[in-house]
Amino acid sequence: MSTGNNIRKYRELKNFTKEELALKARIGIQTLEAYESDEREPKLDTILKISTVLDIPASDLLENKEKKEMDSELKEPH
Question: TM spans, by residue (predicted)?
Answer without folding.
Answer: none
